[in-house]
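Support reply, case 0932

Customer input (verbatim):
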Amino acid sequence: MTRPTRFLMRMAIFLGVVLAVAALLGGPVVRAFAANPALNGLILLATLFGAAYTFRQVWLLTPEVEWIEAFRRPDRGLVAAEPELLAPMATMLRDRQGRMTLSSIAMRSLLDGIGARLDERREIGRYLTGLLIFLGLLGTFWGLLETVNAIGNTIGGLSVPSGGDIAPFFAALQEGLRAPLGGMGISFSSSLFGLAGSLVLGFLELQASQAQNRFYNELEEWLSGHARLPGAGAGGLAEGGDSVPAYVQALLEQTADSLDNLQRLMARGEEARGQAQNHLVTLSERLATLTDQMRAEQNLLVRLAEGHMEIRPVLQRLAQAVEQAEGGLDEASRNHLRNLDVHVARLVEEMALGRREMVDELRGELKLLARTLAALGEERYRDLRPRS
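Our regenerated output:
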C-alpha cells in the first residue's frame, strides 16, 4: 500500500509557493486586503480552515494503510488498532486472519461502503471551495452596488456653474468619484481573494482526491486477489460446461466457511492443549518437589522417633532413681526433668501437626491435578464435538 506522504509533500510545497508569491507581492496584497478587511478576513479564514481540513483528510489515510499492512503480515498478532474508514471491513475480516476469501458480492459491498465514506469526506472540501467563490462574488456585487450608488449620488450632486469658472465643478466631480472607486476596490479585492482561495483549495482537494483514489484502487486490487467468483474454483463447472446451481454453490460456500471455522477451532484447541500440557508438566514438577520434601520430612520424623525411643529408657531410669532417692534430688534437678518432659510432649505434638499439614497439602495438590485433568478432558471433548 502506498502511504499518503508523497501527496502531503506536494500540498506543503504548493502552499509554500503560494506564501512566497504573497510575500513578494506584499504591498498590493495588503492594500487589496484593506479595501474590505471584514469580508476579506472571512475569506482568508475559510481558506485556512479548508487547507487544514484537506491536510487532515489525507493524513487520516495513514492509519488505514498501517492497518492493512499489519493485517497482511504473517504475524497477525501485531495488527494495529481498529481503523475508522475500514471499520466494516475490519469487522468482517476480524476472524478471517487465516485463509481469507470473499465472495464478489461481499467485496463489492465493502468497496461501495468505503467509496461512499470517501465521497462523504470530500463533500466538505468541495463545499468550502464553492463557499470561497460565493464570498468573492458577494464582495463583487457588494462593491458594484456601492459603486452604482456612489455614481448616482455624484451625478445627482453635480451642478454646472452659470459663470464660466468650471474649476469648482471638476473639484466636486473628483470628490464624488472617490466613493465609486472605493466600491470598485471592494469588488476587485473580494474577487481576487475569493478566486485565489478557491484556486488553493482546488489544488489541495485535487491532491486529496488523488491520494484517496490511489488508496481505493490499491485496496480494490488487494481484495480482488482474495475474491471468489460465483461458480469458480473446484466443482465450479459441471460436465458439459453447465454452471453449478445456486443452492449447490451456496452449500459449497457454507461448507468452506464451516471448514475454516473448524480449522480455527482446532488451532485454538491445539493451543489450549499445549497450555494444559505445560500446566501438567509444571504440576508434575511441583508434585516431585513435594514428594522429595515429604520424603525428607518423613526421614526427619523417623530420626525424631528413634531419638524419642532412645530417650525413653533414660527417662524411666531417672524416674526410678527419683523414686528410690525419695526426694533426694534438689529443686533444680526437678525443674530440669519437668522442662525435659514438657519439651518432649511439645515435640510429639509438632510431629503430629507436621504430618497433618503435609497430608492437607498433598490433598490440595491432588485436587488441583484432578481439576486440571477434568478441564483438559472437557476442552478436548468440546474440540471433538464439531467433528461429529
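We compared this against your earlier run and they match. Two observations from our side: The chain has two domains: 5-159+168-228, 246-384. Residues 246-325 form the longest helix (80 residues). Please reopen the case if you see a mismatch on your end.
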